[in-house]
Amino acid sequence: MTAEPASLTTPSLTRDQQRALYRRALRTLPGGTNSNFRAWGESTVYVDRGKGGSIWDIDGNEFIDLRMGYGPVILGHGDDRVDDYVNERMRKGVSFSLTSEDEVRAMELVKELNPWVGKARMTVSGTEATMHAMRIARAYTGRDKIVKFEGQYHGVHDYALISVAPDNMADLGDEDNPVGLAWGRGIPGEVAKTIVPARYNNIDALRRLFERQGSEIAAIIVEPVLGNAQGIMPKPGFHQAVRALTEEFGILLIFDEVKTGFRFAKGGAAEFFGIRPDIATYAKAMGNGYPAAAFAGTDEVMSVLPDKVSHGGTYAGNRVAAAAAVKTLTIIKETNALETIHETGRRLQAGLRSVLDPKGLPYVFTGHPCMFGIMFTDTDPSEYRDWANTDHELYDAIAVGMHARGAMPEPDSREPWFLCEAHAAGDTIDRVISIFSDSLDAALDARAKGQSIETPHVGFGAGDGSH
Ligand SMILES: Cc1ncc(COP(=O)(O)O)c(C=O)c1O
Predict the structure, then answer these.
(1) How far does residue 2's CA lie from ligand 1's centre (Å)?
(2) CB–CB of 344/429 below 8 Å?
(3) Which single residue of 20, 55, 120, 322 could bond 102 by disulfide (Cβ 3.0 to 4.6 Å)?
(4) Is it the case that residue 86 has pLDDT exceeding 90?
(5) In angstroms, rounded to a whole number, what is the distance separating the alpha carbons of residues 400 and 453?
């Protein structure tokens, strides 16, 4: 019998320490983690450290990180420029529930990078940012309903957890009459009823919805790309058409830029697609991984603050987050970090193409080179429901193989790969391409032999979806 070529043999990683910590963590943390999205059962990763574009788990395994914490780490892990500044500032004290100059500067930078913004306020998470954005829209318009697109993720407050990410598309209801599907229990029915699901990239259906219910709708909240389905892009002109429709019906447009902000362009997806929203939410790339977030809007819409709408938070604008935002946004503003990231993404895609094209498999890259996915399909996906018709089992098998070989994309095929500035260094991109190539070969070989590759159980709990 001939031996398998080395590339087809899936290496097994040492995971003794992680298995032990998983057992220990299970006694205290549900699922062994602090977020459902990190609970991967026996494959749950316990991290030791990160530097640049790489991370090390507590067993000492090194991975090129393609998750970058679901996007925030835009420059690289442990970026000395940001960390030194944060360290220097935090020694002056971190929480006063008073306002520091860093907070003012951070919001000035948000304005400078997004010239349409009139006023902005900090929050600690993207979840809080979208929650407040919705409240501002309701207060400003005096209407209660918010439209959101199926498959879009806006965080974990009750108003955001509707029609997010079921595995079974039938749960989303009829294509012409989508239902509001609560993700998990505990969301009051009356709250859920204020969120109206719509289909991304379907402007005719949106017009019909606005014609039926427009007078009750305060805002539509839009992830400019479908980040929860590998960053599916809008059809040409879609955002312009949405903007025009909202103006026609007096409905506010909220751009949820938590993933795209300070990543797609210095002015985020609003700049990239040439849209002027009424409100936007920012988080991830704003603080290079520190918990900095914000909501922002035109002067007119934000005028409901501070007198007419509640917003606060003990940690809102805390020194660590504010300092991280000041330094990170200054780097994004004054250097060519984003150009480097975009070029690195294009280089990676070119390498992946050279691996994929000779195989004759149908595939498309979704998203933007700085945040993209690979979908195995011969039709261009345009909405969340289309993910179900892709060969995501093949993708999942490749992702598992990549983990074993030292690169870590999300094990769920709905999450895009995220690039950071540090990925440009050394041979990182060549290594990702070679790891992808070996993992693809192994996945196809296993499929040809009828073997199934075990993918991690991703423990999202509610039984009706994943992130
Ligand atoms: C588009 C979008 N909005 C909101 C959120 C929620 O942000 P956070 O996890 O900081 O609460 C996320 C997080 O992934 C996101 O991608």
Answers:
(1) 49
(2) yes
(3) 322
(4) yes
(5) 8
